[in-house]
Each structure stands twice: as structure tokens, then as C-alpha cells.
């Protein structure tokens, strides 16, 4: 195991540099020979996601060895937690402190600052796998109006605003998530308009935009794999085209639709075929596929053998696509 860890560390050496205020995946054990463990760095904090069976009455020597090796290799780490993904305790799923006292509460990526709450839930409040997408929206949406649906803590929208977007509207059901989006906006000394942080249901809010005739230059569609409200059901493996058709009427001519599909058991080709079918009417076209960063994937090439479904032509089960939109006149 020591050899596999060293290989993983060496592969990411270009990401490990002072002042240690960035974020990256140090190990994707599922694809790098150590199944059951994913290790991530946020500033000077270590987060280990542990998918093995957990016995709270004993220390797991396997996990202890991994954490010890990481701390020996990176002595500048000041705190660390383990998120026991299969634990019956929500506190343990959200993160059990294993060393240090204070976790990092902010990181910087490509010159943009983001606030963190590493123990907010079983995730970390910041998705590393959308780093390349944050860079894309930062570089391509200057002067554009953006709607960030299913915004979570708003990192994609914050990147767009930091890159010069004229406005970014964040839409999510959670006040807690949107509060973090506001904090990240403030960290970057960007103007906060309360109207741009909207708590509401996706289905009803999109209907309101359509009725008012409001258009956006870019809509970011990042839904959960499955969700059910009184207004509608989201099931990415079954009805992603419905979500796309729902937002198409509120996208300006020559605008962008960015889709993110995290359905683990849907092949990349099946999703790409869905999008290609929608493009047949001539009003949608696939502009680009955004790859998941190599440190998150853990393998240089598409890791078909390590995932439940072959992600090709994408490089990971998180499938990100930029589409161009034409409006019917």
C-alpha cells in the first residue's frame, strides 16, 4: 500500500505547494489500488472519505496507516477528519476529527476564494470535480447573465461572477447552502444582490421565469441524481432531457446551457446520445465536453474498469457538457 500511496502523491506533486491554500484530491483509492478510501486536501486540512465497514469501538489499522502516511509525507497539514460514509451516526458521516483542532474555512482556486464548511454534511461543501468547469465559466461568461440552478454552495456561479459575469442568480432549496454562496461572493469583494440568491423549487421557479419572459445568457443545470418534490421528480438516468427542455425557453439566443450529470450507473455514451438526440432539431449543439481534473479521476485515461459504467466519451461518471442554444423565431 505504501508504494501505491507514494505513486498517488507523486502524481499530484505539481498541486502541492505553499502557501497550501488550494484544494485537490490526493487519492482516489477506487481507481488507484486502495479501494474504499478517497483522500482530499482543503488548504491545510485533510478529509478522508472512508467507504469501508466501520466499527466505532475500534480503530481501523488500514485507515490509520493511510492517515499516518499522509501526515508523514505532508507535515504542514494542521487538521484532519474522517467521513465514515457507512456509519449510522450522522456526526461520523459528516466528519470525525482525527488530528488537530481547527479545520480550514476557505480555499483559493484559480485566483477565486471560496468559503468552506468541511463538516456541513457528508460532502465537503465544495466539489473538486467541477474545477475545470469553474475555470471555463470564469473565462467565458464575461458580461453574461447566468442562472445557477441546484446551486448548492454556489462555487460555479461565484467563479462566473469573479470572471466578469454581469449577474449570477443562484437557485436552491437550501438557505444554508445559499448563505455560503453569499459568503464566497463577499470573500471576493463582489457585490451582493439579495435578489440573486433565490430559495425555491426548480420547477415552479423556472415556470415563473418563463411567464415573465426573463432570459439568461447561460443556465447551469446541476441537479441531484434523484429528487422528488410536489412539483416534479428528478431522475437523471431517466428524465434528464425533460430538465433540459424545461430550461431551454429561458436561455437567450446564442446562449449556453451547461449540463452536469452525476448518474453513476449511466454510461457516458448513453448520456451523450440523449444530448445528441435533442440536438437534432437544430436549436441545440454540443460545443464541448469538460473533463474532470486528473487528480480527481486518479487515472490518466478514462477509468472504465474502475467505475460501474463506462464514462466514455467523458473521462468520469461526472459528465459535464457545454451546449450552445439557438432560439426559435
Description:
The radius of gyration is 20 Å and the shape is globular. It has two domains: 2-104, 2-Layer Sandwich (Transcription Regulator spoIIAA), CATH 3.30.750.80; 127-325, Vaccinia Virus protein VP39 (Rossmann fold), CATH 3.40.50. α4 packs parallel to α5 (155-162). The chain is of the alpha/beta class. The strands form four sheets. It has a seven-stranded mixed sheet, sandwiched between helices. The protein has a five-stranded mixed sheet with strand order 1-2-3-4-5. Strands 6-7 form a two-stranded antiparallel sheet. It is built from ten helices and 16 strands. β3, α2 (61-73) and β4 form a beta-alpha-beta unit. The longest helix has 13 residues, at 61-73.
CATH architecture of the largest domain: 3-Layer(aba) Sandwich
CATH topology of the largest domain: Rossmann fold
Q: CATH homologous superfamily of the largest domain, by name?
A: Vaccinia Virus protein VP39
Mean pLDDT: 93
Q: How far apart, in Å, are the first and last alpha carbons? A: 61 Å
Pattern of helices and strands? HEEEHEHEEEHEHEHEHEEEHEHEHE
Largest sheet: 7 strands, mixed
How many DSSP H or I helices? 10
Calculate Rg over CA atoms.
20 Å
Going by helix content, strand content and strand pairing, the class is: alpha/beta
Estimate what percentage of residues fall within beta strands: 25-35%
Widest beta sheet: strand line-up = 10-9-8-11-14-16-15
- State the helical fraction: 25-40%
Amino acid at each position: 500500500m505504501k508504494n501505491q500511496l507514494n505513486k498517488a502523491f507523486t502524481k499530484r506533486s505539481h498541486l502541492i505547494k505553499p502557501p497550501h491554500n488550494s484544494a485537490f484530491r490526493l487519492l482516489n483509492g477506487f481507481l488507484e489500488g486502495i479501494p474504499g478510501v478517497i483522500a482530499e486536501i482543503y488548504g491545510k486540512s485533510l478529509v478522508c472519505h472512508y467507504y469501508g465497514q466501520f466499527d466505532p469501538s475500534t480503530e481501523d489499522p488500514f485507515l490509520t496507516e493511510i492517515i499516518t502516511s499522509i501526515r508523514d509525507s505532508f507535515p504542514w497539514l494542521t487538521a484532519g477528519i474522517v467521513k465514515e460514509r457507512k456509519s449510522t451516526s450522522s456526526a461520523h458521516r459528516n466528519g470525525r476529527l482525527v488530528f488537530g483542532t481547527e479545520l480550514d474555512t476557505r480555499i483559493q482556486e484559480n485566483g477565486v476564494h471560496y468559503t468552506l464548511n468541511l463538516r456541513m454534511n457528508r460532502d465537503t461543501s465544495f466539489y473538486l470535480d467541477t474545477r475545470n468547469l469553474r475555470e471555463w465559466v470564469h473565462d467565458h461568461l464575461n458580461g453574461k447573465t447566468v442562472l445557477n440552478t441546484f446551486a448548492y454552495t454556489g462555487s460555479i456561479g461565484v467563479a462566473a461572477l469573479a470572471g466578469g459575469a454581469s449577474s449570477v442568480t443562484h437557485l436552491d432549496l437550501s438557505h444554508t447552502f445559499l448563505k455560503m454562496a453569499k459568503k464566497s461572493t463577499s470573500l471576493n469583494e463582489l457585490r451582493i444582490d439579495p435578489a440573486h440568491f433565490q430559495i425555491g423549487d426548480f420547477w415552479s421557479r423556472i415556470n415563473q421565469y418563463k411567464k415573465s419572459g426573463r432570459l439568461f445568457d447561460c443556465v447551469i443545470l446541476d441537479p441531484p441524481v434523484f429528487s422528488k418534490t410536489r412539483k416534479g421528480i428528478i431522475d437523471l438516468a431517466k428524465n434528464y432531457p425533460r430538465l433540459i427542455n424545461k430550461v431551454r425557453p429561458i436561455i437567450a439566443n446564442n446562449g449556453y446551457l451547461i449540463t452536469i450529470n452525476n448518474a453513476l450507473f449511466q454510461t457516458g455514451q448513453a448520456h451523450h446520445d440523449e444530448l445528441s438526440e435533442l440536438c437534432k432539431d437544430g436549436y441545440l449543439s454540443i460545443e464541448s465536453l469538460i473533463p474532470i481534473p486528473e487528480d480527481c479521476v486518479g487515472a490518466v485515461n478514462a477509468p472504465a474498469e474502475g467505475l460501474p459504467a463506462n464514462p466514455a466519451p467523458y473521462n468520469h461518471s461526472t459528465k459535464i457538457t457545454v451546449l450552445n442554444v439557438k432560439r426559435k423565431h
